[in-house]
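Working notes for the structural subgroup meeting. M.R. asked for a predicted model of this chain before we commit to crystallization trials. I am recording the input and output together here so anyone reviewing the notebook later can reproduce the run.

Input as submitted:
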Amino acid sequence: MAGRTSWLAAAAALSLLSAVPAWPQWLQWGGPHRDFTCDSTGLADQWPEDGPRKIWSTDIGPGHSAIVTDGELLFTMCRRDDQDAILAYSAATGAKVWETRYDAPPKPDMLLEFGCGPHSTPLLAGDRLFTVGGLVHFRCLDKKAGQVLWSHDLMDEMGASHLQRGYGPSPITYRDLVILNIGGTDTGVAAFRQDTGEVAWKSEKFRGGYPSPMIVKINDEDHLVVALGADRIGLDPATGQTRWRATVDIQLAGIMSSPLFIPPDRVFFSCAYGGGSQLFQIAFKDGQYAAEELWFQPKMKVMHGDSIRIGDFVVGSSGDFGPAFLIGLDLSSGKVLWRQRGFAKATLLYADNKLIILDEEGHLALATATPEGLQVHSRAKVLEEKSWTVPTLVGTRLYLRDNRAIMALDLGRGAGASGSDITEAHR
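Returned structure, recorded in token form:
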């Protein structure tokens, strides 16, 4: 009996150890906190002139889906002629593990000068991978083998919008649900059971929109925050019921960047074109929620990039089809703290008190941002094609892609020059 008890204890301990991820993970759009920050440490303070050490590089094909990882496999999407392709690669070597394709011919009313995606980023939940293509084909796959477990054609079933240039929002999990923007004929947002794909709830009707939803806690209740057209909305993620809603000027209806939560009760939104940046406070009074605009700043206009909160200020790349500036805004007042040229339109990450910048021309930079300004420590050209995709950071390894290839870089201290230990993998 003692031997059996000892064996059971050892098995339980082994089970607990195996449940702990062996490597850092990046399971969703925006990373662990869905705000493009992570807890990585040990990043180098500067890089060699030719950039961080390249670990491997792999050609994959066009698309702008970001990369998610469970620590062992990387997942993203690309386009193969009139098909969408869901891809899994080895994080260690860049070798392809599996690829699953399906037909997704563009619609006649789409604007295709930049292709039709895919733009949406996959979502990992346990052994399931959730993806949405440019034509709003929603799929759940076994992450290990790429087998499709269930699927929905949301344009056909719910009248979902392809948003002219290809669907872009990334799904999010909540309890046993997976939630995504629809912008359909009778709903704005919908939730599905993760195991079966069954529809759990549908919200009231809202226009479609590119910003990915996020879930935050305000007044000790969960809020699903979405930006759809000219509406800024908070829903109950368990039921889809509207908690609060603010309608903004029609110039702000073209919003593409994700909302940013400022605890305990503020939400930041930014829009390019004729838009600007806004901060709302979500108040709870007499049993009801209401969104009150605290300030509007027309000088910061984030397009399809992201914004990073650093203490009491926020940083973003402001610009659409013209010159771009990196801008710091004071969160209490909306005042512009500084503006800096030198980068094309960019996406941002923040870790280890460092700002990582990737602009659309493929320049990667390491900087320190303070209320007084931006100090760039290192900068190098690392990608060749259009680079609209925000990178992924796990530990000290950075995964990034342009419209043709993905690569892995080592951002750790003492990583050495970029020319060493390069593995080239091919499709």
